[in-house]
Amino acid sequence: MWRGFEGIMKIDFSFLSKYHEALLMGLGTTLHLTVICFGFALVLGFALALLRGSKIAPVAWAATLYVEFFRGTPVLVQLFWIFYCLPIFLGTELSNFTSAVVCLSLYGGAIMSESFRSGLKSIGREQYDAAHALGLGPWTRTIYVLLPQAVLRAVPVLLSNGVGLFKESALISAVGMAELMFIGSTISNRTARPVEVFTVIALIYFLVAFPLTRLVAVLERRILRRLAI
Amino acid sequence: MYDAKTQPLASLRNIHKAYGNLKVLSGIDLDMSPGERVVVIGPSGGGKSTLLRIMMGLEQITEGSIEFEGQPYITALNGKTRIDANVRKKMGMVFQHYTLFPHLSILNNLMLAAVKTRGMARAEARDKAMQLLARLGLEDKAGAYPSHLSGGQKQRVAIARALMLDPQLMLFDEVTSALDPELVAEVEQVMLELAEQRLPMMIVTHDMWFARNIASRVIFCAGGVVVEDGPPEQVLGDPLNPRTREFIQRVFHIHG
Ligand SMILES: Nc1ncnc2c1ncn2[C@@H]1O[C@H](COP(=O)(O)OP(=O)(O)O)[C@@H](O)[C@H]1O
Ligand SMILES: [Mg+2]
Predict the structure, then answer these.
(1) What residues does each domain of chain B span?
(2) How far apart are CA B27 and CA B17, in angstroms?
(3) Domain B10-251, CATH class in plain words
(4) Is the predicted pLDDT of residue B54 greater than 60, yes or no?
Protein backbone atom coordinates (compact mmCIF):
# COMPACT_ATOMS: atom_id res chain seq x y z
CA MET A 1 0.00 0.00 0.00
CA TRP A 2 2.57 2.45 1.15
CA ARG A 3 4.91 1.76 -1.78
CA GLY A 4 2.01 2.01 -4.23
CA PHE A 5 1.06 5.38 -2.86
CA GLU A 6 4.63 6.53 -3.11
CA GLY A 7 4.66 5.31 -6.71
CA ILE A 8 1.63 7.37 -7.61
CA MET A 9 3.11 10.46 -5.97
CA LYS A 10 6.10 10.18 -8.26
CA ILE A 11 4.06 10.31 -11.48
CA ASP A 12 5.46 12.98 -13.74
CA PHE A 13 4.80 13.23 -17.45
CA SER A 14 7.35 15.93 -18.19
CA PHE A 15 10.13 13.53 -19.19
CA LEU A 16 8.00 12.45 -22.19
CA SER A 17 8.50 15.81 -23.93
CA LYS A 18 11.95 14.47 -24.82
CA TYR A 19 10.26 11.71 -26.78
CA HIS A 20 7.59 13.67 -28.54
CA GLU A 21 9.25 13.34 -31.95
CA ALA A 22 9.49 9.58 -31.60
CA LEU A 23 5.87 9.38 -30.53
CA LEU A 24 4.73 11.52 -33.47
CA MET A 25 6.72 9.35 -35.84
CA GLY A 26 5.08 6.26 -34.35
CA LEU A 27 1.65 7.81 -34.77
CA GLY A 28 2.56 8.73 -38.35
CA THR A 29 3.48 5.13 -39.12
CA THR A 30 0.29 3.84 -37.48
CA LEU A 31 -1.86 6.23 -39.52
CA HIS A 32 0.03 5.47 -42.72
CA LEU A 33 -0.47 1.75 -42.18
CA THR A 34 -4.15 2.20 -41.27
CA VAL A 35 -4.92 4.28 -44.36
CA ILE A 36 -3.22 1.83 -46.74
CA CYS A 37 -4.94 -1.18 -45.19
CA PHE A 38 -8.27 0.63 -45.12
CA GLY A 39 -8.03 1.20 -48.87
CA PHE A 40 -7.14 -2.41 -49.65
CA ALA A 41 -9.72 -3.75 -47.22
CA LEU A 42 -12.48 -1.64 -48.82
CA VAL A 43 -11.79 -3.06 -52.26
CA LEU A 44 -11.41 -6.60 -50.96
CA GLY A 45 -14.49 -6.33 -48.73
CA PHE A 46 -16.60 -5.09 -51.60
CA ALA A 47 -15.44 -7.88 -53.89
CA LEU A 48 -16.05 -10.47 -51.17
CA ALA A 49 -19.57 -9.14 -50.52
CA LEU A 50 -20.41 -9.52 -54.22
CA LEU A 51 -18.80 -12.97 -54.42
CA ARG A 52 -20.74 -14.14 -51.37
CA GLY A 53 -23.94 -13.24 -53.17
CA SER A 54 -22.82 -15.13 -56.28
CA LYS A 55 -25.18 -17.61 -57.90
CA ILE A 56 -22.25 -19.97 -58.46
CA ALA A 57 -22.32 -21.96 -55.24
CA PRO A 58 -18.60 -22.83 -54.91
CA VAL A 59 -17.67 -19.16 -55.38
CA ALA A 60 -20.10 -18.00 -52.70
CA TRP A 61 -18.96 -20.82 -50.48
CA ALA A 62 -15.24 -20.03 -50.85
CA ALA A 63 -15.84 -16.35 -50.12
CA THR A 64 -17.87 -17.21 -47.02
CA LEU A 65 -15.20 -19.60 -45.79
CA TYR A 66 -12.57 -16.89 -46.23
CA VAL A 67 -14.62 -14.36 -44.26
CA GLU A 68 -15.46 -16.80 -41.48
CA PHE A 69 -11.83 -17.86 -41.20
CA PHE A 70 -10.50 -14.34 -40.77
CA ARG A 71 -13.29 -13.39 -38.41
CA GLY A 72 -12.87 -16.56 -36.39
CA THR A 73 -9.13 -16.46 -35.67
CA PRO A 74 -7.13 -13.96 -33.58
CA VAL A 75 -5.51 -11.19 -35.61
CA LEU A 76 -2.27 -11.79 -33.73
CA VAL A 77 -2.20 -15.39 -34.93
CA GLN A 78 -2.91 -14.25 -38.50
CA LEU A 79 -0.08 -11.74 -38.22
CA PHE A 80 2.40 -14.30 -36.93
CA TRP A 81 1.37 -16.73 -39.60
CA ILE A 82 1.91 -14.17 -42.33
CA PHE A 83 5.18 -12.92 -40.83
CA TYR A 84 6.76 -16.27 -39.91
CA CYS A 85 5.07 -18.92 -42.06
CA LEU A 86 4.07 -17.27 -45.32
CA PRO A 87 7.74 -16.51 -46.27
CA ILE A 88 8.48 -20.24 -46.05
CA PHE A 89 5.86 -20.90 -48.73
CA LEU A 90 6.78 -17.88 -50.81
CA GLY A 91 10.51 -18.53 -50.53
CA THR A 92 11.25 -14.86 -49.78
CA GLU A 93 11.34 -12.74 -46.66
CA LEU A 94 8.51 -10.30 -46.06
CA SER A 95 9.35 -7.02 -44.37
CA ASN A 96 7.38 -6.36 -41.22
CA PHE A 97 5.61 -3.50 -43.01
CA THR A 98 4.53 -5.77 -45.85
CA SER A 99 3.36 -8.43 -43.42
CA ALA A 100 1.40 -5.82 -41.51
CA VAL A 101 -0.27 -4.51 -44.66
CA VAL A 102 -1.12 -8.00 -45.88
CA CYS A 103 -2.49 -9.04 -42.51
CA LEU A 104 -4.63 -6.01 -41.75
CA SER A 105 -5.93 -5.82 -45.34
CA LEU A 106 -6.95 -9.47 -45.41
CA TYR A 107 -8.54 -9.21 -41.98
CA GLY A 108 -10.16 -5.83 -42.72
CA GLY A 109 -11.55 -7.15 -46.00
CA ALA A 110 -13.31 -9.96 -44.18
CA ILE A 111 -14.81 -7.54 -41.65
CA MET A 112 -15.85 -4.99 -44.28
CA SER A 113 -17.48 -7.56 -46.53
CA GLU A 114 -20.00 -8.04 -43.70
CA SER A 115 -20.67 -4.30 -43.64
CA PHE A 116 -21.19 -4.15 -47.40
CA ARG A 117 -23.42 -7.19 -47.23
CA SER A 118 -25.71 -5.77 -44.60
CA GLY A 119 -25.89 -2.61 -46.72
CA LEU A 120 -27.01 -4.69 -49.69
CA LYS A 121 -29.48 -6.66 -47.60
CA SER A 122 -31.08 -3.54 -46.18
CA ILE A 123 -32.43 -2.65 -49.63
CA GLY A 124 -36.06 -3.70 -49.67
CA ARG A 125 -37.87 -5.73 -52.28
CA GLU A 126 -39.69 -2.59 -53.41
CA GLN A 127 -36.48 -1.22 -54.88
CA TYR A 128 -35.99 -4.38 -56.95
CA ASP A 129 -39.62 -4.27 -58.06
CA ALA A 130 -39.42 -0.62 -59.04
CA ALA A 131 -36.21 -1.15 -60.99
CA HIS A 132 -37.72 -4.18 -62.68
CA ALA A 133 -40.92 -2.36 -63.56
CA LEU A 134 -38.88 0.41 -65.18
CA GLY A 135 -37.18 -2.21 -67.33
CA LEU A 136 -33.74 -1.71 -65.79
CA GLY A 137 -31.60 -4.75 -66.61
CA PRO A 138 -29.44 -6.54 -64.03
CA TRP A 139 -26.37 -4.42 -64.80
CA THR A 140 -28.10 -1.03 -64.70
CA ARG A 141 -30.04 -2.09 -61.65
CA THR A 142 -26.89 -3.10 -59.77
CA ILE A 143 -24.74 -0.14 -60.77
CA TYR A 144 -27.26 2.67 -60.54
CA VAL A 145 -29.81 1.52 -57.99
CA LEU A 146 -28.49 -1.13 -55.62
CA LEU A 147 -24.80 -0.40 -55.19
CA PRO A 148 -25.07 3.32 -54.46
CA GLN A 149 -27.65 2.64 -51.77
CA ALA A 150 -25.67 -0.26 -50.30
CA VAL A 151 -22.48 1.78 -50.21
CA LEU A 152 -24.21 4.84 -48.73
CA ARG A 153 -25.78 2.74 -46.03
CA ALA A 154 -22.46 1.04 -45.33
CA VAL A 155 -20.43 4.28 -45.01
CA PRO A 156 -20.81 4.72 -41.23
CA VAL A 157 -20.09 1.06 -40.48
CA LEU A 158 -17.13 1.04 -42.83
CA LEU A 159 -15.74 4.07 -41.07
CA SER A 160 -16.11 2.25 -37.74
CA ASN A 161 -14.33 -0.70 -39.32
CA GLY A 162 -11.55 1.75 -40.22
CA VAL A 163 -11.34 2.91 -36.60
CA GLY A 164 -11.21 -0.78 -35.67
CA LEU A 165 -8.24 -1.29 -37.99
CA PHE A 166 -6.53 1.74 -36.47
CA LYS A 167 -6.80 0.14 -33.03
CA GLU A 168 -5.91 -3.38 -34.20
CA SER A 169 -2.76 -1.95 -35.77
CA ALA A 170 -1.23 -1.82 -32.25
CA LEU A 171 -0.76 -5.59 -32.63
CA ILE A 172 1.76 -4.96 -35.39
CA SER A 173 4.27 -3.97 -32.68
CA ALA A 174 4.57 -7.69 -32.06
CA VAL A 175 6.57 -8.12 -35.27
CA GLY A 176 8.84 -5.23 -34.40
CA MET A 177 7.48 -2.48 -36.60
CA ALA A 178 8.09 0.99 -35.19
CA GLU A 179 4.49 2.13 -35.00
CA LEU A 180 2.95 3.95 -32.04
CA MET A 181 2.61 0.97 -29.71
CA PHE A 182 6.11 -0.29 -30.45
CA ILE A 183 7.62 3.15 -29.79
CA GLY A 184 5.65 3.32 -26.55
CA SER A 185 6.95 -0.07 -25.38
CA THR A 186 10.49 0.91 -26.26
CA ILE A 187 10.28 4.18 -24.30
CA SER A 188 8.69 2.36 -21.40
CA ASN A 189 11.48 -0.24 -21.33
CA ARG A 190 14.19 2.38 -21.55
CA THR A 191 12.78 4.69 -18.86
CA ALA A 192 11.03 2.13 -16.65
CA ARG A 193 8.04 4.51 -16.45
CA PRO A 194 5.19 2.38 -17.89
CA VAL A 195 2.42 4.31 -16.13
CA GLU A 196 3.17 7.62 -17.81
CA VAL A 197 4.11 6.11 -21.15
CA PHE A 198 1.12 3.83 -21.64
CA THR A 199 -1.29 6.44 -20.31
CA VAL A 200 -0.07 8.82 -22.98
CA ILE A 201 -0.16 6.11 -25.64
CA ALA A 202 -3.77 5.30 -24.74
CA LEU A 203 -4.66 8.99 -24.88
CA ILE A 204 -3.12 9.38 -28.33
CA TYR A 205 -5.13 6.43 -29.71
CA PHE A 206 -8.25 7.83 -28.09
CA LEU A 207 -7.73 11.37 -29.41
CA VAL A 208 -7.58 10.04 -32.96
CA ALA A 209 -10.38 7.49 -32.63
CA PHE A 210 -12.88 9.58 -30.68
CA PRO A 211 -13.61 12.27 -33.31
CA LEU A 212 -13.94 9.53 -35.90
CA THR A 213 -16.48 7.58 -33.87
CA ARG A 214 -18.41 10.82 -33.32
CA LEU A 215 -18.31 11.40 -37.07
CA VAL A 216 -19.69 7.90 -37.60
CA ALA A 217 -22.69 8.75 -35.43
CA VAL A 218 -23.35 11.99 -37.31
CA LEU A 219 -23.01 10.36 -40.73
CA GLU A 220 -25.27 7.53 -39.69
CA ARG A 221 -28.08 9.91 -38.77
CA ARG A 222 -27.66 11.96 -41.94
CA ILE A 223 -27.51 9.03 -44.30
CA LEU A 224 -30.46 7.28 -42.71
CA ARG A 225 -32.48 10.47 -42.99
CA ARG A 226 -31.54 10.84 -46.65
CA LEU A 227 -32.32 7.23 -47.49
CA ALA A 228 -35.59 7.13 -45.57
CA ILE A 229 -37.89 6.84 -48.53
CA MET B 1 -50.78 -5.02 -86.88
CA TYR B 2 -52.79 -4.20 -83.83
CA ASP B 3 -56.19 -2.68 -84.54
CA ALA B 4 -57.48 -0.83 -81.49
CA LYS B 5 -61.01 -0.70 -82.94
CA THR B 6 -61.57 -4.41 -83.09
CA GLN B 7 -58.99 -6.06 -80.84
CA PRO B 8 -58.76 -5.97 -77.05
CA LEU B 9 -55.82 -4.10 -75.58
CA ALA B 10 -55.06 -6.92 -73.18
CA SER B 11 -56.59 -10.32 -72.93
CA LEU B 12 -55.91 -12.58 -70.01
CA ARG B 13 -56.75 -16.22 -70.45
CA ASN B 14 -57.15 -18.68 -67.60
CA ILE B 15 -54.48 -17.13 -65.38
CA HIS B 16 -53.48 -19.38 -62.52
CA LYS B 17 -50.98 -18.45 -59.87
CA ALA B 18 -49.83 -20.37 -56.81
CA TYR B 19 -47.17 -19.63 -54.22
CA GLY B 20 -46.16 -23.15 -53.32
CA ASN B 21 -49.36 -24.79 -52.14
CA LEU B 22 -51.22 -21.50 -51.79
CA LYS B 23 -53.48 -20.97 -54.80
CA VAL B 24 -53.87 -17.24 -55.27
CA LEU B 25 -55.45 -17.01 -58.73
CA SER B 26 -57.47 -19.88 -60.15
CA GLY B 27 -58.46 -19.00 -63.68
CA ILE B 28 -58.75 -15.27 -64.34
CA ASP B 29 -60.21 -14.34 -67.74
CA LEU B 30 -60.35 -10.73 -68.75
CA ASP B 31 -60.51 -8.72 -71.97
CA MET B 32 -59.65 -5.10 -71.65
CA SER B 33 -60.42 -2.59 -74.43
CA PRO B 34 -58.21 0.38 -75.25
CA GLY B 35 -59.08 3.43 -73.20
CA GLU B 36 -60.71 1.34 -70.51
CA ARG B 37 -60.06 1.98 -66.85
CA VAL B 38 -60.53 -1.25 -64.96
CA VAL B 39 -60.80 -0.95 -61.21
CA VAL B 40 -60.12 -4.17 -59.34
CA ILE B 41 -61.75 -4.51 -55.92
CA GLY B 42 -61.90 -7.41 -53.53
CA PRO B 43 -61.00 -8.65 -50.08
CA SER B 44 -57.46 -8.27 -48.80
CA GLY B 45 -55.31 -11.28 -49.72
CA GLY B 46 -57.59 -11.98 -52.68
CA GLY B 47 -54.79 -11.71 -55.21
CA LYS B 48 -55.31 -8.18 -56.56
CA SER B 49 -51.66 -7.18 -56.17
CA THR B 50 -50.62 -10.51 -57.59
CA LEU B 51 -52.74 -9.90 -60.68
CA LEU B 52 -51.13 -6.50 -61.29
CA ARG B 53 -47.65 -7.83 -60.59
CA ILE B 54 -48.26 -10.56 -63.15
CA MET B 55 -49.35 -7.95 -65.69
CA MET B 56 -46.10 -6.08 -64.96
CA GLY B 57 -44.06 -9.23 -65.49
CA LEU B 58 -42.90 -9.30 -61.87
CA GLU B 59 -44.38 -12.72 -61.08
CA GLN B 60 -44.36 -16.08 -62.79
CA ILE B 61 -47.66 -17.74 -63.56
CA THR B 62 -48.58 -21.37 -63.12
CA GLU B 63 -50.94 -21.59 -66.05
CA GLY B 64 -52.53 -19.37 -68.68
CA SER B 65 -51.49 -16.66 -71.11
CA ILE B 66 -51.73 -12.94 -71.70
CA GLU B 67 -51.84 -11.15 -75.03
CA PHE B 68 -51.23 -7.45 -75.36
CA GLU B 69 -52.21 -5.44 -78.43
CA GLY B 70 -52.75 -8.74 -80.19
CA GLN B 71 -49.22 -9.99 -79.47
CA PRO B 72 -48.29 -12.83 -77.14
CA TYR B 73 -46.97 -11.26 -73.93
CA ILE B 74 -46.90 -13.87 -71.19
CA THR B 75 -47.29 -17.62 -71.53
CA ALA B 76 -46.93 -20.46 -69.07
CA LEU B 77 -45.43 -23.55 -70.60
CA ASN B 78 -44.45 -26.64 -68.59
CA GLY B 79 -44.17 -24.64 -65.39
CA LYS B 80 -42.00 -21.95 -66.98
CA THR B 81 -43.23 -18.43 -67.62
CA ARG B 82 -42.15 -16.76 -70.84
CA ILE B 83 -42.36 -12.99 -70.80
CA ASP B 84 -41.81 -10.96 -73.96
CA ALA B 85 -39.50 -8.15 -72.87
CA ASN B 86 -40.54 -5.86 -75.72
CA VAL B 87 -44.20 -6.07 -74.81
CA ARG B 88 -43.33 -5.65 -71.17
CA LYS B 89 -41.93 -2.21 -71.94
CA LYS B 90 -45.47 -1.06 -72.66
CA MET B 91 -46.52 -1.47 -69.02
CA GLY B 92 -45.98 1.08 -66.29
CA MET B 93 -46.61 0.47 -62.62
CA VAL B 94 -46.99 2.49 -59.43
CA PHE B 95 -46.83 0.66 -56.13
CA GLN B 96 -48.47 1.10 -52.76
CA HIS B 97 -45.24 1.84 -50.92
CA TYR B 98 -43.05 4.60 -52.20
CA THR B 99 -40.54 3.07 -54.49
CA LEU B 100 -38.58 6.11 -55.56
CA PHE B 101 -34.82 5.65 -55.60
CA PRO B 102 -33.84 7.47 -52.40
CA HIS B 103 -30.26 8.22 -53.45
CA LEU B 104 -31.31 10.01 -56.64
CA SER B 105 -32.84 13.45 -57.05
CA ILE B 106 -36.40 13.62 -58.38
CA LEU B 107 -35.11 14.59 -61.81
CA ASN B 108 -32.70 11.65 -61.87
CA ASN B 109 -35.43 9.30 -60.67
CA LEU B 110 -37.35 10.25 -63.79
CA MET B 111 -34.39 10.21 -66.16
CA LEU B 112 -32.64 6.98 -65.12
CA ALA B 113 -34.67 4.41 -67.05
CA ALA B 114 -35.24 6.65 -70.06
CA VAL B 115 -31.52 7.24 -70.48
CA LYS B 116 -30.16 3.85 -69.45
CA THR B 117 -32.67 1.49 -71.03
CA ARG B 118 -34.44 3.47 -73.74
CA GLY B 119 -31.33 5.16 -75.06
CA MET B 120 -32.85 8.62 -74.80
CA ALA B 121 -30.35 11.49 -74.94
CA ARG B 122 -29.83 13.14 -71.55
CA ALA B 123 -30.98 16.56 -72.72
CA GLU B 124 -34.11 15.11 -74.26
CA ALA B 125 -34.86 13.07 -71.15
CA ARG B 126 -34.34 16.11 -68.98
CA ASP B 127 -36.77 18.19 -71.06
CA LYS B 128 -39.36 15.47 -70.97
CA ALA B 129 -38.94 14.99 -67.23
CA MET B 130 -39.28 18.71 -66.57
CA GLN B 131 -42.43 18.86 -68.69
CA LEU B 132 -43.96 15.96 -66.81
CA LEU B 133 -43.03 17.45 -63.45
CA ALA B 134 -44.56 20.76 -64.51
CA ARG B 135 -47.73 18.96 -65.56
CA LEU B 136 -47.97 17.40 -62.10
CA GLY B 137 -47.12 20.67 -60.34
CA LEU B 138 -43.75 19.42 -59.15
CA GLU B 139 -41.28 21.42 -61.21
CA ASP B 140 -39.80 23.07 -58.11
CA LYS B 141 -38.96 19.62 -56.73
CA ALA B 142 -36.72 18.52 -59.60
CA GLY B 143 -33.53 18.90 -57.57
CA ALA B 144 -34.97 17.63 -54.29
CA TYR B 145 -34.49 14.15 -52.89
CA PRO B 146 -37.41 11.81 -52.18
CA SER B 147 -36.95 12.10 -48.41
CA HIS B 148 -37.84 15.80 -48.65
CA LEU B 149 -41.21 15.15 -50.28
CA SER B 150 -44.60 14.42 -48.75
CA GLY B 151 -46.19 11.06 -49.43
CA GLY B 152 -48.55 12.59 -51.98
CA GLN B 153 -45.70 14.28 -53.81
CA LYS B 154 -43.73 11.03 -53.83
CA GLN B 155 -46.59 9.11 -55.40
CA ARG B 156 -47.03 11.82 -58.02
CA VAL B 157 -43.33 11.56 -58.82
CA ALA B 158 -43.71 7.77 -59.05
CA ILE B 159 -46.50 8.31 -61.58
CA ALA B 160 -44.37 10.78 -63.53
CA ARG B 161 -41.47 8.31 -63.50
CA ALA B 162 -43.68 5.64 -65.06
CA LEU B 163 -45.09 8.11 -67.61
CA MET B 164 -41.55 8.95 -68.76
CA LEU B 165 -41.52 5.64 -70.62
CA ASP B 166 -44.84 6.24 -72.44
CA PRO B 167 -46.70 3.20 -71.11
CA GLN B 168 -49.65 1.84 -73.03
CA LEU B 169 -51.16 0.44 -69.84
CA MET B 170 -50.72 1.84 -66.35
CA LEU B 171 -51.03 -0.39 -63.31
CA PHE B 172 -51.82 1.26 -59.97
CA ASP B 173 -51.67 -0.93 -56.88
CA GLU B 174 -53.35 0.83 -53.95
CA VAL B 175 -51.27 3.92 -54.58
CA THR B 176 -53.10 6.00 -51.96
CA SER B 177 -53.40 3.38 -49.21
CA ALA B 178 -50.22 4.43 -47.43
CA LEU B 179 -51.01 8.15 -47.63
CA ASP B 180 -52.31 10.45 -44.95
CA PRO B 181 -55.97 11.18 -45.78
CA GLU B 182 -55.36 14.82 -46.69
CA LEU B 183 -52.80 13.77 -49.34
CA VAL B 184 -55.02 11.28 -51.15
CA ALA B 185 -56.86 13.81 -53.31
CA GLU B 186 -53.78 15.24 -55.05
CA VAL B 187 -52.77 11.78 -56.25
CA GLU B 188 -56.27 10.78 -57.30
CA GLN B 189 -56.57 14.08 -59.16
CA VAL B 190 -53.54 13.20 -61.28
CA MET B 191 -55.01 9.79 -62.05
CA LEU B 192 -58.33 11.34 -63.03
CA GLU B 193 -56.51 13.63 -65.44
CA LEU B 194 -54.79 10.63 -67.01
CA ALA B 195 -58.18 8.96 -67.32
CA GLU B 196 -59.47 12.00 -69.20
CA GLN B 197 -56.65 11.48 -71.68
CA ARG B 198 -57.90 7.93 -72.09
CA LEU B 199 -54.75 6.27 -70.80
CA PRO B 200 -55.67 2.63 -70.18
CA MET B 201 -55.31 1.71 -66.54
CA MET B 202 -55.79 -1.14 -64.13
CA ILE B 203 -56.35 0.21 -60.66
CA VAL B 204 -56.56 -1.57 -57.33
CA THR B 205 -58.16 0.63 -54.70
CA HIS B 206 -60.25 0.48 -51.56
CA ASP B 207 -61.57 3.99 -52.11
CA MET B 208 -65.05 3.36 -53.48
CA TRP B 209 -65.75 7.02 -54.15
CA PHE B 210 -62.65 7.17 -56.31
CA ALA B 211 -63.45 3.85 -57.96
CA ARG B 212 -66.86 5.15 -59.02
CA ASN B 213 -65.28 8.30 -60.43
CA ILE B 214 -62.45 6.81 -62.42
CA ALA B 215 -63.66 3.36 -63.48
CA SER B 216 -65.16 2.54 -66.81
CA ARG B 217 -65.47 -0.97 -65.49
CA VAL B 218 -65.19 -2.63 -62.09
CA ILE B 219 -64.10 -6.15 -61.36
CA PHE B 220 -64.72 -7.89 -58.05
CA CYS B 221 -62.08 -10.55 -57.40
CA ALA B 222 -62.37 -13.06 -54.59
CA GLY B 223 -61.15 -16.58 -54.06
CA GLY B 224 -58.85 -16.28 -57.05
CA VAL B 225 -61.57 -15.73 -59.65
CA VAL B 226 -63.53 -12.82 -61.11
CA VAL B 227 -66.81 -12.90 -59.21
CA GLU B 228 -68.44 -9.91 -60.84
CA ASP B 229 -67.51 -7.73 -63.78
CA GLY B 230 -69.49 -4.75 -65.01
CA PRO B 231 -69.92 -0.98 -65.16
CA PRO B 232 -69.22 0.90 -61.90
CA GLU B 233 -72.89 1.80 -61.34
CA GLN B 234 -73.78 -1.87 -61.33
CA VAL B 235 -70.90 -3.46 -59.42
CA LEU B 236 -70.60 -0.70 -56.86
CA GLY B 237 -74.25 0.38 -56.74
CA ASP B 238 -76.38 -2.67 -57.30
CA PRO B 239 -74.26 -5.80 -57.55
CA LEU B 240 -75.79 -8.99 -58.88
CA ASN B 241 -73.67 -11.41 -56.90
CA PRO B 242 -74.38 -11.80 -53.18
CA ARG B 243 -70.66 -11.96 -52.36
CA THR B 244 -70.06 -8.68 -54.13
CA ARG B 245 -73.07 -7.18 -52.37
CA GLU B 246 -71.76 -8.26 -48.97
CA PHE B 247 -68.28 -6.87 -49.73
CA ILE B 248 -69.58 -3.54 -51.05
CA GLN B 249 -71.80 -3.07 -48.02
CA ARG B 250 -68.93 -3.78 -45.68
CA VAL B 251 -66.51 -1.43 -47.47
CA PHE B 252 -69.03 1.41 -47.76
CA HIS B 253 -69.82 0.93 -44.11
CA ILE B 254 -66.16 1.32 -43.14
CA HIS B 255 -65.28 4.13 -45.52
CA GLY B 256 -68.54 6.03 -45.21
N1 LIG C 1 -44.24 -13.57 -52.57
C2 LIG C 1 -45.21 -14.27 -51.99
N3 LIG C 1 -44.96 -15.46 -51.45
C4 LIG C 1 -45.95 -16.18 -50.86
N5 LIG C 1 -47.22 -15.78 -50.76
C6 LIG C 1 -47.53 -14.58 -51.26
C7 LIG C 1 -46.56 -13.76 -51.91
N8 LIG C 1 -47.16 -12.62 -52.31
C9 LIG C 1 -48.45 -12.73 -51.95
N10 LIG C 1 -48.69 -13.91 -51.33
C11 LIG C 1 -49.98 -14.38 -50.83
O12 LIG C 1 -50.87 -14.37 -51.89
C13 LIG C 1 -52.14 -13.96 -51.48
C14 LIG C 1 -52.64 -12.81 -52.34
O15 LIG C 1 -51.83 -11.69 -52.07
P16 LIG C 1 -52.06 -10.29 -52.78
O17 LIG C 1 -52.02 -10.48 -54.24
O18 LIG C 1 -51.06 -9.36 -52.19
O19 LIG C 1 -53.52 -9.91 -52.31
P20 LIG C 1 -54.25 -8.50 -52.30
O21 LIG C 1 -53.40 -7.52 -53.03
O22 LIG C 1 -55.57 -8.75 -52.95
O23 LIG C 1 -54.42 -8.12 -50.86
C24 LIG C 1 -52.04 -13.63 -50.00
O25 LIG C 1 -52.51 -14.72 -49.26
C26 LIG C 1 -50.57 -13.44 -49.81
O27 LIG C 1 -50.20 -13.80 -48.50
MG1 LIG D 1 -52.44 -5.77 -52.38
Answers:
(1) 10-251
(2) 8
(3) alpha beta
(4) yes
